[in-house]
Amino acid sequence: MAAAPGSNRPVTGDPSIARPVLDATDLARALTRISHEIVERNHGAQDVIVLGIPTRGVALARRLATLVGEIDGIQVPVGALDTTMYRDDLRLRGVRALEPTDIPAGGVDGKTVVLVDDVLFSGRTIRAALDALSDQGRPRAVQLAVLIDRGHRELPIRADYVGKNLPTSLTETVHVQLEEYDENDAVLLGPADLGRRTPPPARGEAAR
Amino acid sequence: MNRHLLSAADLSRDDALLVLDTAAEMDVALAGRSIKKLPTLRGRTVVNLFFEDSTRTRTSFEVAAKRLSADVINFAAKGSSVSKGESLKDTALTLEAMGSDGVVIRHSASGAPHRLAHWIRGSVVNAGDGTHEHPTQALLDAYTIRRRTGRVEGLNIAIVGDVLHSRVARSNVLLLSTLGAEVTVVAPPTLLPVGVHSWPCAVSYDLDAVLPKSDAVMMLRVQHERMTGGFFPTVREYSRRYGLDAIRMASLPEDSIVMHPGPMNRGVEIAAEVADSVRSTIVEQVANGVSVRMAVLYLLLGGAMDGAAE
Predict the structure, then answer these.
(1) Residues paired with residue A189 on neighbouring β-strands, in sequence order
(2) CB contact under 8 A, A98 and B35
(3) How many domains does one find in chain A?
(4) In CATH, what class is B135-281?
(5) Does residue A205 belong to any structural domain of this protein?
(6) Which residues lie below 8 Å from residue A6, measured CB to CB, with a gap of 6+?
(7) Which helix (H) or strand (E) holds B95?
(8) How many CB atoms lie within 10 A of CB B86?
(9) What's this model's pTM, rounded to 2 decimal places?
(10) B237 inside 8 A of chain A by CB
(11) What tens digit of pLDDT does each residue of B45-83 get?
(12) ipTM associated with this complex
């Protein structure tokens, strides 16, 4: 079995030669806008719970839940949903270490669940997340918020809230850096990582 | 981690911690859910190949595999072609030809899983071979200790009783010392194997001297079915010197726990009031066994298989 990666998603490419797409201020503005959109769309934040997809989606989910809570003056439940066990590419790559799943007390039944991830790419992670969510219960509705939509979908999935649409080529890599894990808040677009990536089959989340 | 789980000694510290962490995430992932099932091993087939009687281990592996959506085939030697004289190798090859991805084997002969691992392409999990090893039991014991006390490293752990016939003792000594615990085996000299002094543990003949500094005490079953000679004069004498009763339990440190891999001989190695006390983790051990075996099956069978059809 291949060595399982640690808690941080493998960062491919070299961020030092990557081009900045969003800086910390842009990122904060995008999250603020998304939080307002969540409140607007759901007519308030009652029954909204925010679930992040590890690793960076969890940090984004916490920030969004705080922002939404401030707008509506309530505490918005926030948690994490690990999709590892539901992935369709486990057989193609080695097993991965599991990330924590943390469903807020009260569960997801009858709630509006906002799934949060950093980058929307093939859509396969979100498919896995939908499967994982349906085993947790039956939400009233599921919405998807992503910081970056980089295109190249392989499944009929779209995001309800998008921080930034970023047209990319398949050979480029998107690096999302968050203070919780990295030194600062930023989104970088880097060139292809020729060393690590094997082309089509392994395309997908490894080379975001 | 290797492709097989044959011995606790094959596990590096990182491997062992990966299994324990994965088991903890399995616990969390399934806690409070109405659907206690994960789709991860859908389409994989796990064969439970049991040449020796077992309830908890076989059931535990079966539940673990089913919770991961694997197909499970239970094979008991009784009532099979083994009773017509079929060899282990032929039995294994037959099962593999039917498409098994993983084989969980229990056998009365020490080393049978090692032989099996050379014959078949799938993963082999040792579920107890003779008096040799039982690595998943050691993993679930380590998991139980970690859940109860928060850590394994630096703890003093006593393993008491029939060490000679115990595969649980050997696997636990190897695994717990890998994880950084100080292990002491306690037994009458007749129930210690030759070469026990080369094990990574201390050896004592005096239970009362060891108990006051033990953070966990693991009582072993007296395996009457494997005893052909006189290992101790009478059961009563054994129980008086090496059995854990309420008075001995009182000499344990305040937070220490009492473990038993089961099945218990109540009144021989462990008194009923000890087995049912709040310190006892015996029922927890069974529940934790499912999580740990799920983690093992996931880590061995979840990823790409060698020679998998693409």
Answers:
(1) A19, A174
(2) no
(3) 1
(4) alpha beta
(5) no
(6) A97
(7) helix B88-97
(8) 14
(9) 0.86
(10) no
(11) 999 999 988 888 999 999 999 999 999 999 887 777 777
(12) 0.75
